[in-house]
Amino acid sequence: SCRPVQGFCFPLLTLSGRRPYASEVDQIGSKAVLITGCDSGFGFSLAKGFLSSADKGEAGSQELDNMKSERMRTLQLNVCSSQEMERAVEHLGASLKDPQKGLWGLVNNAGISTFGEVEFTSMETYKEVAEVNLWGTIRTTKAFLPLIRRAKGRVVNISSMMGRMGSPARSSYCITKFGVEAFSDCLRYEMRPQGVKVCLVEPGNFIGATNLYTPERIKAIAEKMWKELPETVRKDYGRQYLDEQITKMESYCNSGSPDTSPVINSITHALTSPSPYTRYHPMDYYWWLRVQIMTHLPAAVSDRIYIY
Prior knowledge:
Blueprint: E1 6-9, E2 33-35, H1 41-50, H2 61-66, E3 75-78, H3 82-95, E4 105-108, H4 123-151, E5 154-158, H5 171-191, E6 197-201, H6 207-210, H7 215-228, H8 231-237, H9 239-254, H10 261-272, E7 279-280, H11 285-296, H12 299-306
Parallel strand pairs: 2-4, 4-5, 5-6, 6-7
Antiparallel strand pairs: 1-3
Helix pairs in contact: 1-10, 3-4, 4-5, 7-9, 11-12
Catalytic activity: (R)-3-hydroxybutanoate + NAD(+) = acetoacetate + NADH + H(+)
GO molecular function, one term: 3-hydroxybutyrate dehydrogenase activity
GO biological process, one term: steroid metabolic process
């Protein structure tokens, strides 16, 4: 029910100081940054943006390879594999001009998503989503942290507004992003004495830009869930209930922003600003307000407004 786990990394992107927050960003020169999950979505847009190329938000590593830029290297990496992670660390160390100076930035962007209520979601799905979104983030960070620490650089973790608030039918995704939030906070406390800054980017609804879901994919996930449900659950809920959930999910996906630039600007600022923010909230006003209400007001109030 989830996308493949493959991610693409871009260890030698040169940051030359883009200016989404012009008054706060200083020129930092040429530094190496590793980005995971660059075959599509935010990672792909970020890689192309750093190369000052047109941003389409779709396609994969082949197009990036075809640019034949001296400032970029690509390699295929499964963030769920410790063996591939070790090879990636060795490859990056050999690619850096001066490994003793370390790696300036790591952007943990690789991720997958699915939907389904708790009774509809298999344990295999819970484990699969967590293996990429949570354990993949932790595994990648631990592997490259010595190089980041050597450079006194940046770790930028891509979380979600779903890492700050729960949502019906999204438990498998929410728990991984809540975990990324906790991991990032703990890492930030530990790394401050080391001179490493840790930032969280919490995008709102950008499904329209990331291609995480299409109507065909939503139906495929739902059909797979239905077939795997215990007979008791199927009888208790009924097929009409599932069809209603499919309609709700399609409506949610259609409401997503097709423009990734707020997220890309946030990541760029986190990598280049001398004083990056702890958290970035690239989202439209509706979702920003909803996050504030869900996280600051009593649950009895926020639940009544948004859930029931």
